[in-house]
Design goal:
Structural class: alpha+beta
Shape: globular
Distance between the termini: 43 Å
Number of helices: 11
Strand content: 25-35%
CATH topology of the largest domain: D-amino Acid Aminotransferase, Chain A, domain 1
Bound molecules: adenosine-5'-triphosphate, magnesium ion
CATH class of the largest domain: Alpha Beta
Radius of gyration: 20 Å
Length: 367
């Protein structure tokens, strides 16, 4: 039996637990705290930025993988040097960890991107603002998630604090018609599997809703997105699940927003929506097992996130929509925090969406 070590104890690690049991894999988690979402498998509670803690954790596992991309590069390199199988490996991961590196490498590979630049001074920001309509997006290169580290900027002074910490990524404000995400899984032997591209909805930079497949009258988008995902996974030698976040422009082009080399919020919908979920597939890929089928099990699957707090007193109301699935991450309530999601499946996209939204609304509690 292979033992997987997951660094990070969030909901992504938590949702790997079920598939690991089904596949007969042992799953161990290095969690930030004893209250982490994946606490049931937390064999170590400690700091993923501490080399000794991580090396000690890795000692009893066959493969290391990740719940987030914030593990310092030096630690990933030290793991590899110690002979640990790290999947995805350092070469691929460093691209996902730093948004400036990601832009540069994707550009070198010839993939379609928003117009971008790097600012080191406020004068650089002013120049980019002037060249891009006076309204741009600034991004902190590292450490961002859920829209933290992303800002709409109209004046260079807004970026001053970030510039004090180092270079800042600047991007044109893309006038996208919608956002999509292409999920890909890749084995060490190079086999890939792509799910149909999904449509994602973000509010204030945070994913709120995902529809599988992305509604489209034009199947070309599905093929183009799948090919783009496959190429990026191959180009970067990714092992495991890769999410490619995309902007679709009004003239039908796809631009790459960012990459995540792990299961991703846009793929939670595959748990009920697909023959093989992203969590099972990630485990298969990192263990070099054959990949599972990515076909949909229903015409439509819609996932809606629940933020802040879940009202557990309302479990009885699941009876109102017995075919909608609830996922509770067991996290402490906090304003804006992702604490769970619901997924509905069906044969009509509008009806499936409204059933998912209704159940998310029932369980959402303000804090
Ligand atoms: N260049 C851009 N033009 C227009 N909107 C953008 C641009 N870049 C980002 N956004 C918006 O901000 C959201 C968050 O940006 P991004 O995905 O880079 O940040 P993040 O915080 O790392 O996200 P995640 O939660 O996916 O890790 C995007 O999904 C999109 O809605
Ligand atoms: Mg994003």
């Amino acid at each position: 039996m292979q033992t997987i070590g997951v660094i990070g104890g969030g909901q992504l690690a938590r949702m790997m637990i079920g598939p690991a049991i089904e596949l007969g894999l042992e799953l161990k988690v290095l969690a930030e705290s004893s209250g982490s979402a994946a606490r049931d498998r937390a064999t170590t509670v400690g700091d993923f930025r501490d080399l000794d803690t991580v090396l000690q954790f890795a000692r009893d596992v066959d493969v290391i993988t990740f719940d987030h991309e914030h593990v310092p590069t030096a630690i990933i390199l030290a793991l590899e040097k110690a002979g640990v199988a790290v999947r995805p490996g350092s070469e691929a991961l460093t691209v996902a960890q730093d948004k400036i590196v990601m832009r540069q490498i994707l550009e070198d590979l010839g993939h379609p991107l928003p117009v971008w630049g790097v600012a080191e001074t406020t004068a650089d920001v002013e120049g980019f603002l002037a060249a891009n309509g006076g309204r741009i997006i600034a991004k902190a290169p590292r450490g961002g998630y859920d829209g933290k580290g992303v800002a709409v900027v109209t004046e260079s002074v807004q970026v001053q604090e970030w510039l004090a910490l180092g270079p800042v990524l600047m991007e044109e404000m893309v006038d996208f018609s919608r956002e999509l995400a292409q999920l890909v899984a890749r084995r060490p032997n190079g086999d890939t599997a792509m799910w149909p591209v999904v449509e994602t909805t973000q509010a204030n930079g945070v994913c709120t809703e995902v529809t599988l497949p992305a509604p489209t009258g034009d199947d070309r988008i599905i093929e183009v997105a799948a090919e783009l995902g496959r190429q990026i996974a191959n180009d970067l030698n990714v092992t495991g699940v890769l999410a490619v976040e995309l902007f679709e422009t009004p003239d039908g082009r796809l631009l790459v927003n960012e990459l995540a080399m792990r299961p991703h919020n846009s793929g939670h919908v595959t748990i009920e929506g697909s023959v093989t979920s992203q969590f099972e597939q990630h485990l298969r890929a990192i263990c070099d097992m054959p990949l599972g089928a990515t076909d949909s099990r229903h015409p439509w699957a819609v996932m809606v996130n629940v933020f802040g707090a879940m009202d557990l007193g309302r479990y009885g109301r699941l009876a109102e929509s017995s075919d909608v699935k609830l996922h509770n991450y067991g996290k402490e309530p906090r304003a804006g925090r992702k604490v769970g999601h619901v997924t509905a499946t069906g044969s009509d996209v509008a009806d499936t969406t409204s059933r998912a939204r209704a159940v998310a609304e029932i369980f959402h509690a303000d804090i």
